[in-house]
Amino acid sequence: QVQLVESGGGLVQSGGSLRLSCAASGRAFNNYAMGWFRQAPGKEREFVAAINWVGATYYADSVKGRFATSRDNAGNTVYLLMNTLKPEDTAVYYCAAREKGTYYSPMSYDYWGQGTQVTVSS
Predict the structure, then answer these.
(1) Side-by-side strand order, sheet with 67-72
(2) Would you tell me how many other CB atoms lie within 10 Å of the CB of residue 42?
(3) Fewest 10 Å CB contacts: which of 39, 48, 72, 90?
(4) pLDDT tens digits, residue range 62-77?
(5) What b-and-e string marks burial along 8-29, b requiring 16 or more CB atoms within 10 Å of the CB?
C-alpha cells in the first residue's frame, strides 16, 4: 500500500505560479512512477504530467513549457511546479502512483491522493 497526500493548491491570479507537493508513505517510493492528473467540474479526469523511476518526464500538450514535475526519492515526495497559470487550469489536481502501464492513462495508476484544488482567476 502507498498513501499519497497532496498539498499546495489554492487561489492564484492568471499568470501566477503554484507548486504542488505529493508526499508518499508506505511501500518503497522508488518502485513507483508518479503522475499528476486534474479534473474540472463536469469533465473527465485528464493527464497532466508524469515522472518515471529514473526521472524522465512527460507532459500534456496543454501544460508543456509551463509545468514541470520532479521527484525527491530521499524525501518520498513528488512536485508539480505550475507557471503562467491560466483560468482553464482550474481543477482538482491529483497525484498517483503506478508500477507499470502507460503514463498517461489513469487506469495504469494503483494509488491516488485525495486531490488539491487549484483555482486560477482571470
Answers:
(1) 2-7, 18-26, 77-82, 67-72
(2) 5
(3) 72
(4) 999 999 999 999 999 9
(5) bbeebeeeeebebbbbbeeeeb
